[in-house]
Design goal:
This protein has 80 residues and is mainly α. The chain has one domain. The protein is 75% helix and 0% strand.
C-alpha cells in the first residue's frame, strides 16, 4: 500500500494515540486491582488471561481506527 506523507503522518499519530491510551488503562487497571485486593489471597483463572490479551488487542485496533478517522476528518495529519 502506497501512502503519501499526510497518510503516513496520520497513521503514525493514530498508532501513538492508541498505544498511549492502552498503557494508561493497562497500568491504572492493574494498579487499582492491586490496591483493592492487597493483603488478600486472590487468583485469576487461567482462561481469563487470553481473553484479557484479546481484549487489549481489540481495544488498540478500535482506538487506532477511531483516531485515524478523526485525524482524516480534521485534516490534522500534516502538522508533524
Amino acid at each position: 500500500m502506497v501512502l503519501d506523507e499526510r497518510e503516513s503522518s496520520i497513521r503514525l499519530r493514530a498508532t501513538r494515540i492508541a498505544h498511549s491510551l492502552f498503557w494508561m488503562i493497562f497500568v491504572s487497571s492493574f494498579m487499582s486491582a492491586w490496591f483493592l485486593h492487597r493483603g488478600n489471597e486472590i487468583a485469576i483463572r487461567a482462561d481469563v488471561l487470553p481473553a484479557m490479551v484479546f481484549s487489549a488487542f481489540i481495544f488498540v485496533l478500535l482506538v487506532e481506527s477511531v483516531a485515524t478517522l478523526l485525524l482524516f476528518k480534521t485534516g490534522a495529519g500534516h502538522e508533524e
